[in-house]
């Protein structure tokens, strides 16, 4: 007669319950790599927190001090003083993004799906090289060469489209306008947007592209149905990174625009709003006491604006995170 040994009747030396899984062997290289990655991420968070704390602590006196004694505010409340510069920063960056985004997408599509391989390699190298040009060089080029070249174009815009408010008024005789500064910013943010969009376009599943072409789609229809939907989140990321650089750009705008604290949407007038980085760079050498705190407070406002822009970009990208090549 066969007997069955139950769990309670198991030999005393045998382990009870499910068999214990052997522990994974941790190698020294794995521990070093994971520790290094954790340290790098922690350093980034600590640095960001330190910058925020520094800006907040140093900006507090600007909100508490008497504005009549502040040589930067000149009797104005801080928010009334900084608002035109916030407007100028957002206005110039928005114009630059509107100009650069279609051009960057077109260049990226041409390099990734239309250009011959050798030409695509050369164009990609030139675009990447453009990102290495210092901002002060762009500023000098914009102020000394590009602005005078645009004067006849501005006069033509004013003569033919002056009935549109943004092109009305008296055009600048020097070409140093908010539109010129925005065009220089557009050239500066073009490389990073193009590089990101190009890499995202190249990651489109080849099966999707070939399937669209096999069903009779033209090259543009294939790009519109397969490439652009797949790369939507990457395009948004590239645009937001370019916008972030435009928001924080200093020297290019400083060399092109005069430091005027006004709010106007006109693109061709000689009187233009300037940006927060430009006013900080121009006024910091002469600042002292509460004036330094005022400029640091303006930097805090710029920090908040930039942080908000990147947070919105992350939210937009996260909404598309569930998209994959299979859907």
TrEMBL record:
* Transmembrane helix recorded as keyword: yes
Q: Tell me, what's a Pfam family for it?
A: BPD_transp_1
Q: In which compartments does the protein localize?
A: Cell membrane
Bilayer topology annotation = Multi-pass membrane protein
* Main location as per UniProt: membrane
Give positions of region: Disordered.
Answer: 1-23
Keywords tagged on the record: Cell membrane, Membrane, Phosphate transport, Transmembrane, Transmembrane helix, Transport
Asked whether the keyword Transmembrane is assigned, the reply is yes
Q: Which InterPro entries match?
A: MetI-like (IPR000515), MetI-like_sf (IPR035906), Phosphate_PstC (IPR011864), Phosphate_Transport_Permease (IPR051124)
Q: Which residues form the ABC transmembrane type-1 domain?
A: 86-313
Q: Where are the transmembrane segments?
A: 37-60, 80-110, 122-144, 178-197, 250-268, 295-317
Role, per record: Part of the binding-protein-dependent transport system for phosphate; probably responsible for the translocation of the substrate across the membrane.
For this chain, the family text in UniProt reads: Belongs to the binding-protein-dependent transport system permease family. CysTW subfamily.
This chain belongs to which protein, by name?
A: Phosphate transport system permease protein
Q: Which organism is it from?
A: Microbacterium gilvum
Q: According to the entry, what is the taxonomic lineage of the organism? A: Bacteria, Bacillati, Actinomycetota, Actinomycetes, Micrococcales
Q: What is the name of the gene encoding this protein? A: pstC
